[in-house]
């Protein structure tokens, strides 16, 4: 994994530095859910590895990525690094508490792999990038592309930048609503209290 990290560090840094040039005073926001598909039917057969990672610069707004609805022929090998937990058998949670957080999962080439990923973020600060890449049986050689098959750049106060841009991956988004600001929560709580009073009076 140290070799993989050394490969990704300059690539990730460039992406995150670009995000850091923009600033956003973000409210709490639940972003869209993305359905990600990765087709390995033209990449041969045998064991390979998929890396699902969340990386951030120092000072990034807190981000939690939740991955679920996994589909595909996954292998038994699995490794988590940084602020990551879970498994493809249920759900995976990646947090940007450190610069490098990932699930490194074994797969069997030859079919379609898919999953859903959603992001919760709040506050303002530097950007965060979610990305996925495929590696060969040596855990070092890229498959498909010399880099990320999927990349989603997140910046508070700005639209997500989604970049599959290749023949092996596709990303479809389903929009989600904003999470209410604290003031909105207070209004909702007040409304709920009034409803409660009305119900008690009717009782």
TrEMBL record:
Keywords: Signal. InterPro entries: Ice-binding_C. Residues 178-201 form the Ice-binding protein C-terminal domain. Pfam families: PEP-CTERM. The keyword Signal applies. Residues 1-30 form the signal peptide. This is PEP-CTERM sorting domain-containing protein.
């Amino acid at each position: 994994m140290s070799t993989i990290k050394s490969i990704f560090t300059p690539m990730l840094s460039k992406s995150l530095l670009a995000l850091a040039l923009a600033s956003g005073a973000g409210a709490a926001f639940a972003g869209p859910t993305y359905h990600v598909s990765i087709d390995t039917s033209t990449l041969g057969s045998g064991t390979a590895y998929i890396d699902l990672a969340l990386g951030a610069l120092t000072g990034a707004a807190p981000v939690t990525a939740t991955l679920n609805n996994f589909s595909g022929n996954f292998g038994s090998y699995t490794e988590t690094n940084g602020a990551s937990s879970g498994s493809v058998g249920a759900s995976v949670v990646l947090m940007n508490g450190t610069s490098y957080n990932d699930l490194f999962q074994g797969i069997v080439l030859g079919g379609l792999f898919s999953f859903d990923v959603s992001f919760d973020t709040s506050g303002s600060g530097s950007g965060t990038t979610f990305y996925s890449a495929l590696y060969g049986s040596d855990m070092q050689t890229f498959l498909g592309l010399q880099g990320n098959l999927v990349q989603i750049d997140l910046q508070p106060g700005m639209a997500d930048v989604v970049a599959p841009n290749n023949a092996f991956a596709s990303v479809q988004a389903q929009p989600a609503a904003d999470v209410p600001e604290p003031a909105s929560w207070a209004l909702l709580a007040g409304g709920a209290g009034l409803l409660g009073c009305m119900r008690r009076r009717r009782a």
